[in-house]
Amino acid sequence: MSITLTNKIEITKATTSKINSVDFDNLSFGAVFTDHLFECDFKNGAWQTPVIKPYAPFSLDPSAKVFHYGQAIFEGMKAYKDEDDAIWLFRPDENFKRFNSSATRMAMPEVPEEIFIGGLNELLKIDAKWVQKGNGSSMYIRPFMIATGAGVVANPSDEYKFMIILSPAQAYYAGEVKVVIAEHYSRAANGGIGAAKAAGNYAGQFYPTTLANKDGFQQIIWTDDATHTKLEEAGTMNVFFRINDTLLTAPTSERILDGITRKSLLAMAEKEGIKTEVRSVLASELVEAAKNDSLKEIFGAGTAAVISPIKGFSYKDEYYEMTKPADSYAELLKEKLTSLQNKLSEDTFGWTVKV
Ligand code: COI
């Protein structure tokens, strides 16, 4: 997917760079942004001239619909730099497709490929020196679209802003992750927006997650809203369980995000000869497996977190913990995936795309 913009892109370069003030060895996730951003507005039924300009705050009408009705979507992607200083994206076509599915679900206009992918390529070229080399370093990419049309009538906006911002990244979760299985709150419901990367899906998690944090848990394993028995996602990630030697994860649905890391790990695990099953996993099954020691591992998987091992879980006020096995699937798959992404091993899947 080598897309370049045919519409002339207006580029204004920053006069100074912040790069020398950044400690790339101690980055908090999503806290530092590069010198430039990409922006394209949708007005009068059409996408306008795309722009790359210095990263800076901008103003909107206080009645813009994004503030009142949360008409907003985003993606999470990553870029990597290889030993020869070439920059690579990981499965950008998948993020592009999912972004436009989210747009459709949220009654927003689709973003053309030449704006999404073409704009991203140009932005990465301009801020190329910000992309750090080495396994564990990446450039987190945040494309997003917000409803900018003014007016508090509750209907879809007629104006939108699509932007891409870049944030150099290391690990998302520092330290161990313990989770609590949701018994009351829900992340998503059938017919809702759980499968879209809609901003409100994340805001809706903040309150229950804060409650969980107070009890010493970093994240929640979300369950199905109807019965709270099926395990669906872990916080902001898809979730995998290893029972004996089988790797299990829930099928995608209207409630579950079709994670790109999730589907990549399933393919990699199969290639490694690991037995995988995509099926509903019940909370009761997890408890049983923890009790008879067949539950070997739980881990979350997502673009930001990559693979985040989960040390233990709480369900119905009981806490269960696993001992990390010597042949950890989480460690094996993380090493395979990040080496492929960082171009330190051969990409036999054809997932990496040069900028
Ligand atoms: C990602 O993994 O890219 C996500 O979208 C999760 C985000 C909340 C950091």
From TrEMBL:
It catalyses: L-valine + 2-oxoglutarate = 3-methyl-2-oxobutanoate + L-glutamate; L-leucine + 2-oxoglutarate = 4-methyl-2-oxopentanoate + L-glutamate; L-isoleucine + 2-oxoglutarate = (S)-3-methyl-2-oxopentanoate + L-glutamate. This is Branched-chain-amino-acid aminotransferase. It comes from the Bacteria. Its EC number is 2.6.1.42. Acts on leucine, isoleucine and valine. PANTHER family: BRANCHED-CHAIN-AMINO-ACID AMINOTRANSFERASE, SUBGROUP IIII AMINOTRANSFERASE. CDD domains: BCAT_beta_family.
